[in-house]
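Narrative of activities, Objective 1.

The group set out to show that a structural description can be obtained from nothing but a protein's sequence at a throughput compatible with the screening campaign. Below is one input-output pair from the validation batch, recorded exactly as produced.
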Amino acid sequence: MKLLAIDTATEACSAALYIDGDILEKYEVAPRKHAELILPMIDALLLEASVSLASLDALAFGRGPGAFTGVRIATGVIQGLAYAAHLPVVAVSTLAAMAQGAISESDTIISAIDARMNEIYFGLFSVGADNIVTPLVDEQVLKVENLNVKVTSACFGVGSGWGTYEEELDRKFADKLTGFDARRFPRAGDILTLALKEFRSGNIVDAANALPVYLRNKVTR
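Output recorded for this entry:
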């Protein structure tokens, strides 16, 4: 199986390629440079693996939530590639991708991305026996003080929301929180892990239906 994934929803920009069990990845924290970085990353991966876009089985992308411009970049790029190569697409939550990257920290992961406007994008995930995260609640955008989620076991936090709202989130989960990493961003390699499971389950869409998820009507860049 061959699958390409990209993510540009946060400060990080990344692309990853899965080739029959092996993963190649390009990753860079480069705010506002995603548009100039992502296509060269993709080209470099395909060249390194000696494969063509048309030979892939599917594409995957971080569909949000995240920065409006970043989510739009990933959506536009993946739609263009999917149309050109006639490939199906797997859309993956950026909150889930962040949690997937932290499965070694805890069996329960809290993802929080700074959504500006005094809000966060929030997701709560459990790590399954297959080492794949699954959501425990619906993703949401809200003010931290309005967060009403109970965690019953030890948990670990990831995402920029933990840096911006450290004190508030710590108070919410202090009795269960083992730590957090505010500099952990979604990575295309983790999107691949989630996308492979979805692809094998038949959860794919065509290019026209590879759509972003913003979680709110008002957007910030």
